[in-house]
Design goal:
By secondary structure, the protein is α/β, with parallel strands linked by helices. It has one domain: 3-Layer(aba) Sandwich (Rossmann fold). Helices cover 44% and strands 16% of the residues. The protein has 6 helices and 5 strands, in the order E-H-E-H-E-H-E-H-E-H-H. Strands 2-1-3-4-5 form a 5-stranded parallel beta sheet, with helices on both faces. Helix 2 packs parallel to helix 3.
Amino acid sequence: MPAILTLDDDLLFCEFLHDVLAQDGHSVVSVYNGEEGLIKLGRQPFDLVLTDIDMPIMDGLEFFRRARAMPFASELPFIVLTGRPRERVMVAGDAMEGVPFLLKPVTPATITRTVRATLDGFPRGHEGLGDHRRRILL
């Protein structure tokens, strides 16, 4: 069962994401800002991260940059879920080029399809990054 970390400051949207992803057989952990996301990444292995851009304390762009600097998360697949137009996100964070981008509001079918495609397209997606992470930290 792939483990997915979701980041969004909207509690109702986090619940929506959790329900959609759990119904598709994923283990889901939700946090509400990038700082909490970095803490979770350091404590628990994940196979995929879905992040909003606009969040308090630490936004999604800064979270993405810092997560990519972590050895065990440097190749972790990401999906961006945001209400901002793609052009505004790309201007602010060209490091996210190539990351799947979903504009809110988004349907459960679109989330499910994008998550499956991202995990299927990632070589270690279904093997999990947990062992990879443990090897680096031990």
